[in-house]
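re the bet — no i am not wrong, look at it urself. input seq straight from the record:
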Amino acid sequence: MLARIRFRWLISLTVNVKNTAEEKRMAWRIGVDTGGTFTDVALVDERRGLVALRKVPSSKEDPSRAILTGVLGLLADHGVPREQVSRFNHGTTVAVNAVLEGTAARAGLLTTSGFRDVLELARQRRPHLYDMSVRKPRPVVPRELRLEVGGRLDADGTEVSPVDGAELDEAIAALRDADVDAVAVCLLHSYADPTHEEQVRRRLRKALPDVPVSVSSEVHPEYREYERFSTTAVNASLVPVMRRYLGRLSDGVARAGITPPVRVVQSNGGLASTATAGDLPVSTLFSGPSAGVLGAVRLAAEAGVWDIITFDMGGTSTDVCLVRDGRIPVVHEREMDGRPIMGAMVDVVSVGSGGGSIAWVDDGGLLKVGPRSAGAVPGPVAYGRGGTRPTVSDADCVLGLLHPDAPLAGTLRVDTPAAARALESEIGNRLGLDAVAAADGVLRVLRADLVGAVRAVSVARGTDPRDFTLVPYGGAGPLHASALARELGIRRVLVPPAPGILCAYGALSADVRGDFGATCVADATEDGLTEVVAAFRRLEERAAQWSRTESVGDAVVLERRVELHYANQSHALPVPLGGEPSARALQRAVADFHQIYEQRYGYALPGEPVRVVAVRLTATAPAERSWSSERVPEGDPAPAVRRVFVDGAWRQAEVYRREALPAGWSCQGPAVVGQLDATTVVLPGQRARIDEFSNLIIEEAR
């Protein structure tokens, strides 16, 4: 059942929790999302459906500190006893920040003789074909810490030669002397038989008991050596970082008297225990964006909207995802900082453009926005926290879209004159523009980046974005959604009731989920069925172990897929299998594969033989979502009026407080709708209304 939330609009709301036996049995859920600028906290009363929200500045040096500040402050403000918290779900950016900022741990790598340089050889492709000065990403593990060990398996798992014990001991001693923080073990063809890697891991644990070990046969037990090596090496470098962070967070939550275990949102949109996330941090690289897509899909589906483009614009980046028929798309390979990462991930395209993105002029006199961000500290100039470089948010302030009379996150007031001075000094003086023209230029450049991101998930894949509804969220998403939709020809925008904390809400409504995959090369016919069945049985054993680790009991739903391709092709397409593997199920999958292939590439080859190259199993423990959906307007819906710069001119715009707007309310643009966690702009020629589910719907009036 989809979540239906009753939203209360909170600037300062006091929840009177009566000290009765009934009230003591109340259960509350906490959802947290950490971003580059703000940390968002959502609080849900499972019985009464109340949602309370809070945004606090993120603490980059220790994200757990901002989380605890926001959670404990929210509980105290609303009189909620800590022992009544039943769930604590968390979307995190710790892993992705460690990769992008180069602050991951110092890791070593043990591999088969002759394969020391796989991480640098990669696929021998230039990232940019005609750029002669392009630099390849620096390997996660430096060459001096990549050591070779004798022993080898054949492609089918047959042992060619055993592990050389003497070479292994010598390599382990070298890693000990190098004082590595973690070790990755990536042996050739270990996806076919993990015996050699398990042998190496046992020796490592005995010799280096305090050093975490990541083996490729567990991190990503599938063929393609470079991708498997890259994923395992990144995972190893993140294990110490993630374990320290989750340990601090879990200890702080427990000391505060909050008893449920912390669960972490993974890149696949599902939840995992801190134990699983600590061992497999590579699965959390896209945690926050995945939670946001999940929240957007659930709220849009409640309103009967199934085809959406999610638009999550925060302080440092923007994440876009195309969802058709309410099904969240999942891919099994993405790049992170130029390195391939394998595993189940929500199919999100990211660009380095957000509210905190710094605007600058390059040596050729071109105006640029991002990818550098002012973050939470020092932040945009208008925030008054020491920032000196103009940002997107500063441009919003100068154009009247953000206003001191509507403080951000309930407490933060903006300094528009300071923002104007910074824009004129850094941008205007170099380009011969005043502050307003400079600010307008910043937003035009920003929109070009955002349009490119939406086209990457739609037009570039043969899909017309005009057939979809744009769902903006994040602190800056609703502010820029109307202009973005108009430029793309999208005629409807659905702004969720609390867009600034939608990622935290998505974390609240996520299921516990595990994704498992394995290489299985077989004909997609009855002749290959035995191998396919055996491969799925091995995955089911892994899923059973996962369910015990995650403490989810027997209420687990299994979903099976096979990856198919035409014989002699290199890459495959995932196809749902539908139930237990059987000759008939495999036959249906092949028929579906031909259709999917034609949709993707414009043609199919039904007479060509089809092969299975991998099998995948998703195990899900569904979360209960049963709260109601009712909103009580608070305050006077009558608008104020202020000047805003939209469509290239200053105009008088009506300004509304969203918490005061009842279902059925409507207005014509230009208008600004402000609330605790976000600001929405309605352009001239657009109309806005509140639907029965408290969503703000914006549509073109002409």
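see?? The first strand starts at residue 6 and ends at 7. told u. also The first helix runs from residue 21 to 24. so pay up
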